[in-house]
Design brief:
Elements: H1 12-20, H2 23-33, H3 39-46, H4 50-63, E1 66-72, E2 77-83, H5 85-88, H6 91-104, E3 115-118, E4 123-125, E5 143-146
Antiparallel strand pairs: 1-2, 3-4, 3-5
Length: 158
């Protein structure tokens, strides 16, 4: 499918969709907000082909949603992907998509809802912006999605 360039459109929604309109972008952002930084982590968690992931990561770096940061591997230098403020600012959009999906899409037969964990207090919140238990404001650094359907093999409490 040919894609239209909306980067110069006067509408901010169109310009935003030019950057984040691809579903893989939002899924990569979700994983980055859950702590994934390395190519292999994104590939394993998303079950995405290398070429698709490499293209999306490059686009997200170019758009300013992620930045590359070097790290030393066992034998050589590698790059990891760190979420930027621009990427973190999309957290409310992910929250809205999660709530909309819970309300309007059909879940698998053994449905388990996605919860929000307030990290520093180690309890669940029903609100994505203010902890419903203690009243503290929640930021992308202090909260995480708790996806109980994620396999133990992924080793995530996300």
């Amino acid at each position: 499918m040919l894609r239209q360039d909306w980067s110069k459109h006067p509408c901010p929604i169109a310009r935003s969709l030019d950057v984040v309109g691809d579903p893989w972008v939002m899924l990569v952002l979700r994983e980055a907000l859950l702590g994934a930084t390395r190519f292999e982590q994104f590939r394993e968690r998303l079950q995405v082909a290398d070429n698709v992931l490499a293209r999306r990561l490059a686009q997200m770096v170019e758009a300013g949603l992620l930045r590359r940061a070097p790290y030393r591997g066992k034998q050589r230098m590698h790059e990891e992907y760190v979420i930027t403020d621009a990427g973190a600012d999309l957290l409310p959009s992910l929250d809205a998509l999660a709530r909309w999906g819970e309300k309007y899409t059909k879940a698998p037969a053994r449905h388990i809802e996605m919860s929000i964990l307030h990290r520093s207090a180690d309890h669940l919140s029903s609100s994505p912006t203010v902890c419903s238990t203690c009243g503290e404001p929640l930021t992308s650094a202090d909260r995480v999605y708790q996806r109980r359907w994620a396999t133990a093999a992924q080793g995530e409490r996300s």
